[in-house]
Amino acid sequence: MIKVQSQRGEISISSAVFTSITGAAATNCFGVKGMAYRSMTDGLVHLLRREAMSKGVKVTYNEDGTVSIELHIIVENGVNIATVCRSIMGEVKYVVTKNTGVEVREVNVFVDSITV
């Protein structure tokens, strides 16, 4: 949980907020099939349903009040992966900062699979 000071008091933002915003922003980008989750039981990568997207996102709170975001995605076949990842990084950074007021230090994107 991150705490933000305002003139009227303290605002606490849970990691669920960051993961929901991140998952929605990432999956709205062109070329993204969805969020990914690697199962610990079978080791396979699974496409997450919309209500479980947050499993593909990890948020780290930094000492300087910023957040670092790690997300795992599945991309569509035939897209330029580097371009899609750059698009996601920019979009996630913008949307999270705009909606929470918290600066995003970095966004790390892991492409776990490609749909065929």
Characterization of the model:
- With 116 residues, the chain is α+β, with helices and mostly antiparallel strands.
- It has a single domain (2-114), classed as Alpha-Beta Plaits (2-Layer Sandwich), CATH 3.30.70.1350.
- Helix content is 28%, strand content 39%.
- It has two helices and seven strands; from the N terminus they run E-E-H-E-E-E-E-H-E.
- Strands 3, 4, 5, 6 and 7 form a five-stranded mixed β-sheet that branches. The chain has a two-stranded antiparallel ribbon with strand order 1-2.
- A hairpin with a 5-residue loop joins strand 5 and strand 6.
- Helix 1 (15-27) packs across helix 2.
- The longest helix has 20 residues, at 81-100.
- 28% of the residues are buried.
Question: What attributes characterize this protein structure?
Answer:
Alpha-Beta Plaits, 7 strands, two-stranded antiparallel ribbon, alpha+beta, 116 residues
Quick overview:
Belongs to the asp23 family. The chain is α+β, with helices and mostly antiparallel strands and 116 residues long. It has helices at 15-27, 81-100, and strands at residues 2-6, 9-13, 32-38, 45-47, 57-61, 67-75, 104-114.
Secondary-structure topology with pairs:
Blueprint: E1 2-6, E2 9-13, H1 15-27, E3 32-38, E4 45-47, E5 57-61, E6 67-75, H2 81-100, E7 104-114
Helix pairs in contact: 1-2
InterPro entries: Asp23
Protein name: Asp23/Gls24 family envelope stress response protein
Pfam families: Asp23 (PF03780)
